[in-house]
Every structure is written in C-alpha cells, then in structure tokens.
Amino acid sequence: MPVYKYKVKTGATEKDKVRYMVKVNTRDLQHTRRGFLTKKHAEAYDRRIKEQMLIGVVPRSITLAQVSEKWLKHHRDEVKESTYRDYRTLLDKHILPALGHYKLDDITAMQVQEFLGNIKDTHKGRKDDPVGPRTRDKVRMTLGAVYRQARAWGLTINNPVEGTRTPPYKRERTIVFLEPAQAQPFLDALEEPIKTMAFLLLSTGMRSGEAAALRWVDVNPSFINVDKSFYKGVLTDPKTYKGIRRVKITPEVYARLKAYRGSKGDADLVFSLDGGYIPHHYIYRRVRAAGRAAGMDRLGVHDLRHTYAAWMISEGFNLRFIMEQMGHSDVQVLLNTYGHIISSVEADYVVRFDRFLHQIVRFSGHAQ
C-alpha cells in the first residue's frame, strides 16, 4: 500500500501545493485516500489500514448521513432531550448539508478544516453570516463524536476531525445586570405572572427554565426544591447535576409567593399560562420590554441571574454560598464569570474591614 505524492493547483508556494495519497489495491479492498498535507500523516493512515485489515475491519460504503442517524438514535436515551435536539440541529443545519452525502472514508482532514472555516449562520436576518466560535466548536465536537462511534463500530478506521482545529478565541464576557435603583421600575413594568417570576429570579439566581417548571409542592417557607427545568418546550432535568438543589429564600420572597398564590387560585404550577408551562419566548419578550422601561436596552432573561450574582457579590456574601444557590458546579465558574465585579468591590471590602478593625483594636501611642 504505497504512499504517492501529487500536486494541487492552489497554494502560495510550490511546497504548499504538495499533497499525499494512500492507495490500497488488494483482493479484499480497493481504496484511495487523498489530501494528506504531509507524508507522515499519509504513512500513519497507511499503518492504520494495515492494522485494521489484520483484524478484519475495512472501509465500508456507508455515508456520513447514514452513520449520523445511527449515532443519534444510539445516543437518544443516553442524553437529555434538549441535548438530543441540539445534536439534531447541528447535524441538520450544518454538518449533513455539507458532508452528509460523502462516504465516511472519503472525507479528509483538509475537507473538514475548510468546512469548519466556512460554516454560515442559518437564522433569518443573519443568513450567510459566519457562525460564532461556540457554534463552530459544537459542530466539530459533534462530527468528531460521530466518527469515534463509527470507528468503535468497525465502520471506518478514519477520523478526519482529529487532524483539524477551530481557531482559538477569547471569550468576551459582557455581563449585563440591573442596578439596585433599576429593580423597582423594571418590576413595575411587568404584569403577572412574569412580574413575580422575575422577582423570584432576581431574589434567588434561579434559571428561568427552573422557575417555569416549579410546582407549589416545591415551595417551602425557607427554601425551594429545584429538580426540573422547562427548556425548549420540554420538561427535563436541570442543566447540570449541581442544578438539582435546595435554594434558600428569604421571608420576603416567601411572603410574595404566598400572596401571589392567593391571587391566582388553585393551581399545580407556580407560574402558568392558560394552565400550562410558560414558553421561554413569552418570558423573554416581556423582560426585554421591561428592561427598556428601566433604562436597559439589552436586558435578557438570563441577565436577571447575573443581577442576583452581582448584587450578592457586591454585598459581600460568601462565594460558595452564591455558587450553591445558583447551582454552579464550582466556585471557579463564578470567578471566571464575575471576576471583574469581584475586583471592583475588593477596595470597598478593605475599607469596611479597616473600619471594623478600628472599632475593636486600639494601640496606645499610635495616631487615632
């Protein structure tokens, strides 16, 4: 199974035009792979073919679309419904239209790299714009997972995703949150049931999907049990295993929920619309409009969660307590997300602690 050298038409230099191919021509297999950028990669592929042929695995005439469907069906019962939907969307909108018709072993690393660099947005109004780096990462991870499973099933010896990368990027976090003085104008611009829901999100740091899934049996005088989330039209588990938690609430929060319950009559769900779960888009539109009324042009539902964290950090609450309230898996998540807020209040912490020391400690002979 020799390795052959050939040239392509495009390339800045003669060296850039060089490619390598592997040809297999045996009684059991006729197979050609082109597009290797280096001889080393071609030889490594050649070795893998020889190793796999020894154990009876050879490239098959199966397309990426066919194996993707098998992979998706195989994993449906192993992941959350929302995760399954995300996989389905990534495959249908990006991966399969571009690569689905190719046989597994005909797709090269160079081809995948070019595909990753040219993924376009499919949303109305942003069509043909490049997708963001997070979407590109998700596409690459999904395609890689399909190939890893195909290799485990003996359908291929190839995984072209291993030879690719997505450009590194620095995530720019612009955290939007309400100032304390904006809270009342914001709530005043809302109507029930979103008004009380927004108050709860500001007071606990819960996710909107968690609040939408709440039932009155979950509400207690000093805490709320969170074990479900209503996300993308599906009742599911919280985002992470740490999301299943007991959220502490103040007497003021419980009193507000109790008063709200008395005004809406007997119902199982804490927050409902026509007796059913409230969809996210309904919450989003009303929060967005109320944010504008409070002077915030770009306030989203998740920003109410950011607001809770910013207020708690500013008031000096313990980061581990905030982490547990919000259902984060690690304090580092808080540090990464709200580090700039923590830094901005450190000077105030020093002044407050200096005032505390001054009240309890005196040294004779020192200036007061």
Polypeptide structure, described:
The chain has 13 helices and seven strands. The strands form three sheets. A three-stranded antiparallel β-sheet has the order 1-2-3. The chain is mostly helical and 368 residues long. The longest helix is centred in the C-terminal third of the chain and has 30 residues, at 331-360. The protein starts with a strand and ends in an 8-residue tail after the last helix. The radius of gyration is 28 Å and the shape is elongated. The chain has helices spanning 39-54, 64-75, 81-99, 109-117, 133-152, 180-188, 194-204, 208-212, 251-264, 280-293, 302-314, 319-326, 331-360, and strands at 3-7, 18-25, 30-36, 223-226, 229-231, 234-236, 245-248. The model has no long low-confidence stretch (mean pLDDT 85).
Structural key phrases:
two-stranded antiparallel ribbon, mainly alpha, 368 residues, three-stranded antiparallel β-sheet
Topology:
Layout: E1 3-7, E2 18-25, E3 30-36, H1 39-54, H2 64-75, H3 81-99, H4 109-117, H5 133-152, H6 180-188, H7 194-204, H8 208-212, E4 223-226, E5 229-231, E6 234-236, E7 245-248, H9 251-264, H10 280-293, H11 302-314, H12 319-326, H13 331-360
Antiparallel strand pairs: 1-2, 2-3, 4-7, 5-6
Helix pairs in contact: 2-3, 3-5, 6-10, 7-9, 7-11, 11-13
Give a quick precis of the structure.
The chain is mainly alpha-helical.
Q: Describe the strand arrangement of the main beta sheet, using strand numbers.
A: 1-2-3
Please give the largest β-sheet: 3 strands, antiparallel
Arithmetic mean pLDDT:
85
- Would you list the SSEs in sequence order as H and E? EEEHHHHHHHHEEEEHHHHH
Oligomeric composition of the shown chains: single chain
